[in-house]
From TrEMBL:
Name of one Pfam family that matches: MFS_1
Stretches assigned to the Major facilitator superfamily (MFS) profile domain: 34-420
Protein name in the entry: Bcr/CflA subfamily drug resistance transporter
Membrane topology, from the record: Multi-pass membrane protein
UniProt-annotated location(s): Cell membrane
PANTHER family (alphabetical): MAJOR FACILITATOR SUPERFAMILY, POLYAMINE TRANSPORTER 2-RELATED
Record's keyword annotation contains Chaperone: no
Region (Disordered): 1-25
UniProt-listed InterPro entries: Efflux_drug-R_Bcr/CmlA, MFS, MFS_dom, MFS_trans_sf, Sugar_transporter_CS
NCBIfam families from the UniProt entry: efflux_Bcr_CflA (TIGR00710)
Keywords tagged on the record: Cell membrane, Membrane, Transmembrane, Transmembrane helix, Transport
Transmembrane segments: 31-49, 69-88, 100-123, 129-146, 158-182, 188-209, 238-256, 276-296, 303-322, 334-354, 366-388, 394-415
Length: 436
């Protein structure tokens, strides 16, 4: 097995492709079934994040907890997602994917039920952290399995599917949670998540074969797999793409956490109208994902990534200028956020596909760093919107602009897309993806 070595500049680029032959691509039908299960595994974390949000007030009353203590349960889950991805991803490079996927699904069921019966807020917070660690298995290993099984133009197309699921799941989650709360208590949400875990376990057992055979696994045990992660951390180009994804995700999380306040409190729309606005903006991400799938093999991932960062930054700049000059306008805020989300919809699948290709010799470790940094910076950005004031949408706009600008800096200084690295269409079995 060849591990990637650090690249400090354009002249120091190590091969990232594996020396052993990749897994043969599955048939069209089996590929569809596999991607469907992997998409469901990707969706479970967004569902677990947002499904119980409508029940926050009832949860606080029933457990005798403050609103900040209730919100801490979400922070605990996000922390679990980060820790889980950083642990499970590299370990899977040495042990294989299927056992960890199965174990993660079982653990998710167990800890979802623990949340459902939690007697106090402290137990709920601890159970949410562990539920996040378990849910991370599906997210991080879904990307690794895709990298194991698919190559060339197929890879970015399937990553587009995963990113679209990530965009749609947060919309569906509060609606599903609200429907459950209309007929039951907040505890029913976690029972429903346990049922989702059972379905995922069935899907993994029936539809996800082992994608990393023993001869392609890292030898030397767990220490070897974490050394591979260290090598990726020292790789300038790979980490450039990781930071682009992390920063653009920070912009997305700032939007998700702050948009309800902006539209409902500042512009006075109802919660139903806000849901429609949020859904319409999410359509922008779906449009981007569809365009990405069609253009990836013809235009190139780095070109689409650059365009996505530029569009997201343009939307954020327009939002700041609009609020600073014309003031708070519903139509203007809606339109500029739509443009920003449109750009984000190009960035996420591009960085995932490029990052996984550059880290193909250690797909689990690469997936862990991509997902871990994504949720870490997202978790940091989420509370900042409320921290800087609630009498204007400018804090949300500025935070999104700073995050999009940071993504642009990482793209130019570290990733350097003009080099054309990480294009899956250039990868051949046993070939080098980086020019010497």
């Amino acid at each position: 097995m060849v591990s990637p070595s650090p690249s400090s500049g354009a002249s120091s680029r190590a091969p990232v492709a594996v020396t052993s032959p990749p897994q043969p691509a599955p048939s069209q039908r089996s590929a569809g079934a596999l991607v469907a299960v992997l998409a469901a595994l990707t969706a479970v974390a967004p569902l677990a994040i947002d499904m119980y949000v409508p029940g926050f007030p009832e949860m606080g009353d029933s457990l005798g907890a403050s609103s900040s203590a209730v919100q801490l349960t979400m922070t605990a889950f996000l922390a679990g997602l980060v820790v889980g991805q950083l642990l499970i991803g590299p370990i899977s490079d040495g042990l294989g994917r299927r056992r960890l996927l199965t174990g993660g699904a079982i653990a998710f069921i167990v800890f979802s039920l623990a949340c459902a019966v939690a007697p106090n807020i402290a137990v709920l917070t601890g159970a949410r952290f562990l539920q996040g660690v378990a849910g991370a298995a599906g997210m991080v290993l879904a990307r690794a399995v895709l990298t194991d099984r698919f190559h060339g133009p197929e890879l970015p197309r399937y990553f587009a599917v995963l990113s679209q699921i990530m965009g749609v799941a947060p919309i569906a989650a509060p609606v599903l949670g609200g429907a459950l709360l209309a007929v039951s208590t907040w505890r029913a949400v976690f029972v429903a998540l346990a049922v989702v875990g059972v379905l995922l376990l069935y899907g993994v057992v029936r539809g996800v074969p082992e994608s990393l055979p023993p001869e392609r696994r890292h030898r030397g045990g767990v220490p070897s797999t974490f050394r591979a992660m260290g090598t990726l951390l020292a790789d300038r180009t790979f980490m450039g793409y990781v930071l682009v994804l992390a920063m653009i995700s920070a912009a997305l999380f700032a939007y998700v956490s702050g948009s309800s306040f902006v539209f409902e409190n500042l512009h006075g729309v109802s919660s139903t109208t806000y849901s429609l606005i949020f859904a319409s903006n999410a359509v922008g991400m779906l449009i981007s994902g569809a365009a990405f799938s069609q253009l990836a093999s013809r235009v190139g991932l780095n070109a689409l990534l650059t365009a996505g960062v530029a569009v997201a930054a343009l939307g954020a700049v327009a939002q700041v200028l609009l609020v600073s000059t014309a003031g708070e306008t519903l139509a203007g805020t809606w339109a500029t956020l739509f443009v920003t989300v449109l750009g984000i919809g190009l960035v996420i699948p591009s960085t995932m596909a490029i990052g996984q290709t550059l880290g193909r010799s250690a797909p689990g470790a690469a997936s862990a760093l991509l997902g871990g940094f994504q949720f870490f910076f997202g978790a940091i950005a989420s509370p900042l919107v409320g921290l800087f004031g609630e009498d204007s949408s400018l804090p949300m706009a500025v935070i999104m602009l700073i995050a999009a600008g940071a993504a642009g800096v990482a793209l130019v200084l570290l990733a350097r897309p003009w080099l054309g690295l990480g294009e899956p269409t250039a990868v051949k079995a046993g070939s080098e993806n980086r020019p010497s």
